[in-house]
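Subject: complex prediction, re-run

Hi both,

The earlier run crashed halfway through, so I resubmitted it with identical inputs.
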Amino acid sequence: MKNETVKIDYGHLEQFCRDVFLRLDLSEYDADSTAKVLVAADLRGIPSHGVGRLSRYVNGLKSGLMVPHAPFEIIRETPSSVVIDAHGAMGPPVSVKTMSMIIEKARKAGSAFGSVSNSNHFGIAGYYAMMALDENMIGICMTNTSLLGVPTFGRRAMFGTNPLAFAAPADKERAFVLDMSTTVVTRGKVEVYDRLGKELPKGWAVDKTGKSASDPGSLLNEMIERLGGGILPLGGEGEEFGGHKGYGLSIMIDVLCALLSGSPFGSEIWDMESSSVRVSHFFGALKIDAFRDPAAFRCDMDRMLEKLRTCEPAEGEERVYYAGLKEYEKEEEYSRNGIPLLKKTYDLLCSIGKEHGVNPPEAIE
Amino acid sequence: MKNETVKIDYGHLEQFCRDVFLRLDLSEYDADSTAKVLVAADLRGIPSHGVGRLSRYVNGLKSGLMVPHAPFEIIRETPSSVVIDAHGAMGPPVSVKTMSMIIEKARKAGSAFGSVSNSNHFGIAGYYAMMALDENMIGICMTNTSLLGVPTFGRRAMFGTNPLAFAAPADKERAFVLDMSTTVVTRGKVEVYDRLGKELPKGWAVDKTGKSASDPGSLLNEMIERLGGGILPLGGEGEEFGGHKGYGLSIMIDVLCALLSGSPFGSEIWDMESSSVRVSHFFGALKIDAFRDPAAFRCDMDRMLEKLRTCEPAEGEERVYYAGLKEYEKEEEYSRNGIPLLKKTYDLLCSIGKEHGVNPPEAIE
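This time it finished cleanly. Structure:
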C-alpha cells in the first residue's frame, strides 16, 4: 500500500539520525542539532522537511555540497547583530548556533538580529523562531531557497519559496507559531499532482509564457530545463487576488537574508542535485520585557488565541485554528504514540542505517 | 463625469490641509505632519488614504473621536524600544514622532522597535517605513485596523486588514517599498463592486455562513449588521491557495501592534462613524551598518531590483515591477505635473475650506 506507515518513537528516531551523522564523522553538536531539527519536523506533522531528507544530508556531506567541519565565521558583530559565513555547512547546526547568539544578545540589547550566508537547507524555519519562546521573547526566522517563484506579471522564476517563521509565547494556550512559505505552494505539491495525474488549480503556477499552468508534468520539465515558468507568489496570478503582495514578501525575505549578509539572491540560487546550496538565513528575537510585562503579554495572547480557536466555523467546517495549533496537536500525539513514517521513508532510513552500520529505529507497531 | 479630475500642486495641497488643521487649533507639528502624510498618499497614487479622508479627520477632531492635544505618553522605554500611549490622538503626528524616536534609537542600538496604543487612522504605513531610507536603515511599520478579516475556516471577522510596510534603500534604483494589507482586498474594493453592481470574484470574501460571497451589497450589509461574513486573508478561502498564511500574517501584525502595547486587538476594534478608533501601530528600524557596509548593500539592492524590473514579462503584459516602483513613478509624475484629484474629492476640500475660512488650492488645469 502506497501510504502505509510505520510508527517510530521520536527519541529513537533522533538517536538514529544522530548516530548516522556521527558515523559520517560530524561533531556531537552538529550531529545532535541536525537530528533534532529533522525529527522536529516529523513530530509536528511536516514530513516534507523531516527525516525523509536524511539521504539529502548524507549525500550532501559525502559529495561536499555540505561541508563537514566548516568554520563558523563571524563576519561582523555588534551587541545587537551578527553576520555569519557558514562556509557551506549544513543548515541546522549553524542556525541553532546563530539563533542562540541572537537570543543572548537580545537578553541584553532588547532585540537582536543575525544573517547567515553560504548555508544549506535548514529544515523547518519554525524550529529556530520557537527557540525564543521559553525566553519570553518573540522569535523570527527566514530563509531564501532555490529559485522557484515567478514575479507578478513575469514568466521566469526570480526568487525562492522564501519561508517566514514568527513565534510568540502564550500561557495556557499553545504558542502562536507561523511558519509559511511566501509562494502559494511549494514544488513538492506540484510533484504530488504530477504523480496523481491531476491538473493544477488555476492560481498555483504559470508556464513558460507566464500564463496559468495546468499540466504539472510539463511545468516541472520547463522549470528543470530553465525554459521559464514556476510557482506563483502567495495571492496567485496578477494583482486581482494580491499576488503582488506575496511577491513583495518573498523579496523582503531575500533582502533580509541575502542582501544584509552579502550573499547570492533570487535568480542566483539554483537547486543542485542533492540540496539547494548557498542559501542564506535571517534570525531575530524581541524581548517582550522591553515593551511590556511578559506575564501580561502571555495572558493577552491566551485571550486572543482562545477567541480565534473557539470562533464559529464556516458551514461544513469543524474547527478554526491559529498558526501552530495543528502542529502542536500533532506533536503531542506523536510524542506519545510515535511518529507515523511513510513505509518508503522508513525503508530508506533502514538502508542508510545498513550502509553506515547503524541499527534502524524499531517500529512500535 | 464620474471620474473627472482636477490637477493640484502637491505643495499647495499640503498647505491647504495644514491651514485647515491650524484653524482647528492643532499645533504646527500636528498640522504639518498630518498634512504631509495625507498628501504623500495622493502623490504616490494611493488616493484611498489621501486627502479624500480629510473630512474624517476634521469630523473626528470635532466629535472627539480623535483627541486634539492628546498627551504623547511614554509607557515604557529602553535604549532599543519604546511603548507609547497616544491617548486617542490622530495617527500621523504620533506615528512620525515614534518612528523618529525609533530611528534615533537604532542609530545607537543597531535596531529599535516601538508600539503605539490608543491611536487612530495613520494614513499609509509605507510613509513611516520610508522615513528610515535616508538613514541607511531598513524601515518597518504595521498597524491593526478595524474588524474586517475572517479566519481560515471561520465565518466571522476576527482581525483587520492589518497592513505591513517594509522599506529598504537602493542606490540608483528607487527603493524597495512594500506596503500591503494582509487581506486579499480592503473594504473599499467591495464598495466599488457594489456601486458597479458587479459580482465579487470568488476568493475575496465570505458571507455570514462562511462560504464564498458573491453579492457585495448583501455582504456589506451583513458586516454592518454584525451578522458575520467579511474579507478573506491574503491567499483566499480555505487552505488550497494559502489563505491560512495571510490569516497568520494578520495575527502576527496584531501581536506586534496590540499585544506588545497592551491594546485592544482583533474583534475588539470596531469601526466608528468617523474613523476607526483605538488602533495600535508597530514601528521598527534596522541599521544596515550593523550587518554590512551600507554602500555595498545599496549596490546589491540595485542589482536585485534592476533584475526584477527588467525580467521578461508574461505574454500580454508590458512590465514587471517591484514593490514601490509604481508609486515612485507616480510620485515623480505628480510632483512635476500636479496630483489628479477626483472632482468630488476636490469639491469636498472646497467645502471644508469654506467652512473653516481657508482658500482651497487652485486647480492647475
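Chain A has a mean pLDDT of 95.

- K.
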